[in-house]
Amino acid sequence: MSAAEPYVSIRGMSFSRGDRLIYDAMDVDFPRGKVTAIMGPSGTGKTTLLRLIGGQLLPDSGSVKVDGHNIPQLSRKALFDFRRKNMGMLFQTGALFTDLNVFDNVAFPLRVHTDLPESMIRDLVLMKLEAVGLRGAHQLNPAELSGGMARRVALARAIAMDPEIIMYDEPFTGLDPISMGMIVKLIRGLNEALGLTSLLVSHDIEESCNIADYLCVVSGGKVIGFGSPQELLNEGNDEVKQFLRGDPDGPVPFHYPAPDYQAELLSGGGQ
Ligand SMILES: Nc1ncnc2c1ncn2[C@@H]1O[C@H](COP(=O)(O)OP(=O)(O)OP(=O)(O)O)[C@@H](O)[C@H]1O
């Protein structure tokens, strides 16, 4: 497939939870080899989108193609194989195995999913740990790591199998500014060094604008803006601009819909 083809291509995808429509015939393409930050109001379905791409959730209709494979139509085995070979995921809740040390955490996917000899696994693990700056910490236990270090070990584990795409869900949450800076640098650096396609869900608008080639803003079940941070800040529609600038006033109202304030006060307080 050519570099110009998007790595992820979604067409007419709808997905509901109960009677709530989260995605409404959505179309979106995520470019190959780039970092795209998925943004939008809380509860709009950003994590859900990553899970639909990863095949942990299936859409009600439409296609979700990853490198040309329509994820909802893969058999269970084909999906597991595809995910194992091509996808790395770093979810905020994706904790390390507490009873394995750093080395064994990173070695885990290689031991489970490959027949590589232990000497090669050792070299690969040390290489991945070197990439996140923690080769020297390979014998530590998760309890001995700071939050930022644990996140970097999880990142080394996510790239252990040399994925083509990596999805990050809120990778900066709970990190101090220095650890956050390191994760930002790593996401960008790994993207370039490994030629990855990276999707990032984050509430941090400033960091996302710094790190991402493209922003994808979702709201109301659709993509309402897609472009470089600069393009969207300058030329996005009013709702996109309001979101990116964090303005309390704009097309998204501060007030939840309510009856006239004065009339309600004068009505004497009936519920
Ligand atoms: N397991 C679940 N069962 C039922 N509803 C769910 C489940 N997980 C999420 N939802 C609902 O689906 C909607 C989208 O959730 P999702 O976590 O994808 O949003 P989000 O945009 O990532 O939110 P946030 O920015 O707050 O993390 C929300 O209304 C949420 O309440």
UniProtKB/TrEMBL annotation:
InterPro entries, alphabetized: AAA+_ATPase, ABC_transporter-like_ATP-bd, ABC_transporter-like_CS, P-loop_NTPase
Sequence ranges assigned to domain ABC transporter in this UniProt record: 8-245
Pfam families the UniProt entry points to: ABC_tran
Keyword Plastid in record: no
GO terms assigned for molecular function: ATP binding
Keyword Cytoplasm (UniProt): no
Superkingdom assignment: Bacteria
Keywords from the UniProt entry: ATP-binding, Nucleotide-binding, Transport
Record CDD domains: ABC_Org_Solvent_Resistant
Protein name, as recorded: ATP-binding cassette domain-containing protein
